[in-house]
């Protein structure tokens, strides 16, 4: 139904190719991890999908070309969490989360400012799903990093978009909060949403993602289940590392261990 | 022997036969005095403004002399015996330096009335060795001024500039207005010195007659929001007005008598003179 | 969904700024009346009201309607422009130190006005005056925006503003010195410090249409500015058209600030102080801050204009002196507070 497809995506900026000929698709309820070393073009892929970077190639959601959609329509179908937390004002948590409903607000001259009932349900649902319901009247600037990450996620969930893109949602969080946020995201997939996450932590990526897309210098290297992507060769070629792999509770895990000697 | 002779010479009192001291003026008001009383040969330089016909009534005559910008360096290079400056001259702290070079700096006081103008002219004349000329010129001016006075005019007159500026008690404008037998509205309203005549006061107590300063020049568009105000324009349209001759107005020196004569001519033309009435 | 869910209050999403706006409006009207009562002529309150309504003596009518009322209306316009522009620029640049005065927008506008006035261009049409001021304000805002868009820190923004305002101030002084009409120091002071005394409705008419248009453009930005608090990328992902938003804020500020500066000269710090004071009452939402800032700016300018008439000085104080006396310590306090991200 809401199949997401990217075909032949090229992202160029100032004569430099950031992403070259990327093709992948994403089914409903699927969690795709975008991995790759620094500068591989992971964030550029998300920004291109969000129409924030000039690009070529087809990006289609539910069969419709995203670039051709009006901004408002697109905003209802795609939720995006950027890498950096831009909020500086001490806005309350629920006000911040309510901003996720912006794509649904009417024009101001039709009294569009008043929240509608389904807005409230969406906001409350997002606050509860991310377990920040009790923080709703606190100011975002007073929150801890982990709390703030969940609040931002709640803001993205409040959009109620079928596809969520998040750029390093668990960076700078302690392990407990990393696991917590990843579980929350996983839970969203169970409810039928599709997610694309940029991740640096290969352990988390292999543990939570259905499939991984490995990028290196803008080129797609591998796409598939974690076990097929995080192979010894790929890790050596792309990251220049060796990793420990194993199995726990019938699930494979990977633990980056040491630098490949002699590799760049 | 020679040394003795020089000492003797220095000890001698100043005599008329001695060459006049050379003078430089750095200020338009001092220029006007110099042109009245000085010998053309003793004037080394006049201020630049004196040659600007927009502000100087003597631009033509002043072109005969080199102009200066009134800087200390000007004075150092001209090496006059006397330098006339205005009271607020910024380089007065260099007076000692100039004195060491043989230049005496004389600051002109700001006149508060006609007597000040006469006194200043006389004093400067004496200081540049032209005391006699000073006496003659001031006596002449005094005579002309006295001829203008003596008539009583019942009009309440308001001196006004486009910025709303007026002149209260203790200014040469007030002195002149009173001398001409008119009543200065600003002074009657209790104003002293140079100040503003608020629009509201103008509405409540309008004058019988305006004496307008600088309205003819499109001077200072920013400061003249007052002058553009439609209310003022309406009052101006409904009230007779005479204007001051711009060039002879700003200094309050002897040339004030020229201004006074022109004002009286304008008054007469308006039919404002009613001798015998009080 | 069940009704139970709706018991919790969505604080920020209701309209807490409505009572705030009403309070500010009431304060504004009260101060306007106070301002109408101050002047050289000792009119009683009854005479003032009679004069205002056109029922009193002709003298009172003239004084109240033609001298005092334009001054009050101009205070509204100037204050509203500066307050709303300050709030909008702070929202757009996401920086609490953004302000038309500090950023040099006002001084650029006054440079434009000075060029028109002193080189006689206004003789062609009085509209040249606001037009040039708005054009210069626009150029300044565009320059600033260009300079500070890519990751503006407080430091770069303020430095760019300082550079721009000193340049405009210097060019203003230069233009006044080179002008064919002789000018005095008072003129320079007026353009650098601003004043609204002795203005008439002719001047009000000259800026009114542009101020209204500018304020309307700024108010249109409110919802988008709220969302922009999330950062440009996320705001864009929520359907905010960033280039349209930038255009509206820049054009709105240039129109309203430029047009008022053309009539009053530069009045500083209003756009800094007012949004800062009011932000807490609108739950720190940049968009919702706009209308209260416009009203609050008018209140501040009106208050300052009353204060300068209360302080008995031989020469009337310049309005910009009073706002700077209030605003500069404020600015220092803000800088101290944000010292960490300045460094």
Can you walk through the features of this model?
The complex is a heterotrimer of chains A (264), B (278) and C (343). Chain A is an alpha/beta fold and 264 residues long. Chain A has one domain (4-259): Rossmann fold, CATH 3.40.50.300. Chain A has helices spanning 42-49, 71-77, 93-98, 117-129, 145-157, 175-190, 202-208, 226-229, 232-239, and strands spanning 4-13, 16-26, 31-35, 55-61, 64-65, 78-81, 163-167, 194-198, 211-216, 219-224, 241-248, 251-259. In chain A, helix 4 runs antiparallel to helix 5 (145-157). Chain B has 13 helices and eleven strands. Chain B is an alpha/beta fold and 278 residues long. Helix content of chain B is 41%, strand content 14%. In chain B, the strands form three sheets. In chain B, strands 3-2-1-4-5 form a five-stranded parallel sheet. A four-stranded parallel sheet of chain B has the order 8-6-10-11. The N and C termini of chain B lie far apart (74 Å). Chain C has helices spanning 17-37, 45-53, 58-93, 105-118, 128-148, 154-178, 185-193, 201-220, 222-228, 232-237, 242-264, 270-278, 290-310, 319-337, 339-342. In chain C, helix 4 packs across helix 11 (242-264). Chain C starts with 16 loop residues before the first helix and ends with a helix. Classes of the chains: A alpha/beta (264), B alpha/beta (278), C mainly alpha (343). Chains in contact: A-C, B-C.
CATH class of chain A: Alpha Beta
Mean pLDDT of chain A: 89
The total of beta strands of chain A comes to 12
For the biggest β-sheet of chain B, the strand order reads: 3-2-1-4-5
* Cα shape of chain A: globular
SSE topology:
The complex is a heterotrimer of chains A (264), B (278) and C (343).
Chain A lengths: L3 E10 L2 E11 L4 E5 L6 H8 L5 E7 L2 E2 L5 H7 E4 L11 H6 L18 H13 L15 H13 L5 E5 L7 H16 L3 E5 L3 H7 L2 E6 L2 E6 L1 H4 L2 H8 L1 E8 L2 E9 L5
Parallel strand pairs in A: 3-8, 3-9, 6-7, 7-8
Antiparallel strand pairs in A: 1-2, 1-4, 4-5, 9-10, 11-12
Helix pairs in contact in A: 4-5
Chain B lengths: L1 H10 L11 E3 L2 H10 L5 E5 L11 H4 L4 E2 L3 H7 L3 E5 L8 H6 L3 E5 L5 H14 L3 H18 L7 E5 L4 E3 L4 H8 L3 E2 H4 L5 E3 L2 H6 L4 E4 L12 H4 L1 H9 L2 E3 L12 H15 L8
Parallel strand pairs in B: 1-2, 1-4, 2-3, 4-5, 6-8, 6-10, 10-11
Antiparallel strand pairs in B: 7-9
Chain C lengths: L16 H21 L7 H9 L4 H36 L11 H14 L9 H21 L5 H25 L6 H9 L7 H20 L1 H7 L3 H6 L4 H23 L5 H9 L11 H21 L8 H19 L1 H4 L1
Helix pairs in contact in C: 1-3, 1-13, 2-3, 3-8, 3-11, 3-12, 3-13, 4-5, 4-6, 4-11, 5-6, 5-11, 6-7, 8-11, 12-13
């Amino acid at each position: 139904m809401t199949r997401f497809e990217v075909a032949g995506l090229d992202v160029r900026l100032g004569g430099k190719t950031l992403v070259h000929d990327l093709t992948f698709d994403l089914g409903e309820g699927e969690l795709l991890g975008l991995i790759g070393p620094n500068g591989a073009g992971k964030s550029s892929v998300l920004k291109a999908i969000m129409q924030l970077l000039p690009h070529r190639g087809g990006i289609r959601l539910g069969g419709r070309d995203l670039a051709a959609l009006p901004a408002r329509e697109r905003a209802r179908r795609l939720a995006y969490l950027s890498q950096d937390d831009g909020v500086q004002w001490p806005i309350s948590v629920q006000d911040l989360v309510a901003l996720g409903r912006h794509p649904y607000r009417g024009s101001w001259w039709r009294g569009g400012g008043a929240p509608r009932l389904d807005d409230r349900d969406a906001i409350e649902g997002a606050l509860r799903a991310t377990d920040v319901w009790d923080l709703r009247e606190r100011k975002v600037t007073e929150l801890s990093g982990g709390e703030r990450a969940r609040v931002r996620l709640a803001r993205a969930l409040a959009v109620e978009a079928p596809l969520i893109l998040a750029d390093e949602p668990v960076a700078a969080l302690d392990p407990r909060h990393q696991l917590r946020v990843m579980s929350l995201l996983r839970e969203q997939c169970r409810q039928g949403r599709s997610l694309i996450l940029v991740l640096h932590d290969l352990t988390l990526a292999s543990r939570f993602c259905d499939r991984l897309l490995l990028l290196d210098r803008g080129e797609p290297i591998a796409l598939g289940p974690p076990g097929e992507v995080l192979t010894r060769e790929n890790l050596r070629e792309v990251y220049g590392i060796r990793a420990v792999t194993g199995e726990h509770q019938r699930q494979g895990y990977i633990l980056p261990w040491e630098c490949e000697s002699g590799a760049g | 022997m020679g040394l003795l002779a020089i000492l003797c010479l220095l000890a001698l009192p100043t005599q008329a036969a001695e060459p006049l001291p050379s003078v430089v003026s750095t200020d338009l008001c001092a220029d006007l005095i110099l042109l009245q009383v000085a010998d053309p040969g003793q004037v080394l330089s006049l201020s630049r403004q004196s040659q600007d016909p927009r502000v100087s009534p003597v631009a033509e005559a002043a072109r005969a002399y080199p102009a200066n910008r009134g800087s200390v360096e000007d004075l150092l290079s001209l090496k006059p015996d006397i330098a006339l400056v205005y009271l607020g001259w910024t380089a007065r702290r260099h007076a000692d330096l100039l004195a060491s070079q043989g230049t005496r700096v004389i600051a002109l006081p700001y006149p508060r009335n006609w007597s000040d103008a006469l006194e200043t002219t006389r004093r400067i004349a004496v200081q540049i060795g032209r005391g006699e000329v000073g006496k003659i010129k001031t006596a002449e001016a005094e005579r002309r001024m006295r001829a203008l006075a003596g008539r009583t005019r019942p009009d309440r007159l308001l001196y006004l500039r486009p910025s709303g500026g007026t002149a209260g008690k203790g200014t040469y404008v007030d002195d002149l207005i009173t001398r001409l037998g008119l009543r200065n509205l600003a002074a009657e309203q209790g104003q002293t010195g140079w100040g503003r005549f608020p629009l509201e006061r103008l509405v409540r107590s309008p004058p019988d007659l305006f004496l307008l300063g600088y309205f003819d020049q499109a001077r200072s568009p920013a400061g003249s929001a007052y002058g553009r105000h439609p209310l003022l324009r309406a009052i101006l349209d409904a009230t007779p007005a005479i204007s001051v001759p711009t060039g002879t107005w700003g200094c309050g020196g002897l040339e004030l008598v020229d201004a006074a004569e022109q004002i009286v001519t304008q008054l007469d033309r308006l039919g404002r003179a009613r001798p015998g009435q009080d | 969904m069940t009704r139970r869910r709706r018991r919790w209050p969505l604080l920020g999403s209701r309209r807490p700024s409505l009572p705030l706006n009403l309070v500010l409006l009431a304060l504004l009207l009260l101060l306007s009346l106070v301002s109408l009562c101050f002047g050289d002529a000792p009119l009683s309150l009854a005479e003032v009201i009679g004069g205002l309504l056109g029922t009193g003596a002709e003298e009172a009518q003239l004084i109240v309607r033609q001298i005092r009322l334009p001054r009050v209306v101009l205070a509204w316009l100037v204050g509203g422009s500066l307050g709303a522009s300050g709030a909008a620029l702070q929202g757009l640049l996401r920086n609490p130190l953004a302000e038309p005065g500090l950023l040099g927008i006002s001084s650029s506008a006054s440079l434009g006005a000075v060029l028109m006035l002193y080189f006689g261009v206004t003789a062609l049409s009085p509209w040249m005056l606001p037009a040039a001021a708005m054009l210069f304000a626009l150029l300044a805002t565009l320059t600033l925006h260009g300079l500070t868009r890519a990751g503006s820190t407080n430091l770069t923004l303020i430095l760019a503003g300082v550079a721009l305002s000193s340049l405009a101030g210097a060019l203003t002084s230069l233009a006044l010195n080179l002008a064919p009409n002789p000018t005095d120091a008072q003129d320079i002071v007026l353009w650098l410090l601003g004043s609204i005394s002795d203005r008439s409705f002719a001047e009000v008419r000259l800026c009114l249409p542009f101020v209204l248009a500018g304020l309307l453009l700024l108010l249109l930005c409110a919802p988008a500015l709220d969302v922009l608090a999330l950062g440009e990328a996320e705001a864009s992902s929520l359907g905010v058209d960033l280039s349209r938003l930038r255009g509206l804020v820049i054009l709105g500020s240039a129109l309203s600030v430029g047009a008022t500066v053309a009539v009053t000269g530069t009045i500083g710090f209003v756009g800094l102080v007012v949004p800062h004071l009011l932000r807490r009452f609108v739950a720190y939402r940049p968009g919702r801050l706009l209308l209260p800032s416009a009203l609050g700016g008018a209140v501040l300018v009106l208050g300052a204009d009353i204060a300068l008439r209360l302080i008995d000085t031989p020469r009337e104080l310049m309005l910009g002196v009073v706002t700077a006396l209030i605003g500069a310590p404020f600015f220092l306090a803000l800088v101290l507070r944000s010292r960490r991200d300045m460094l």
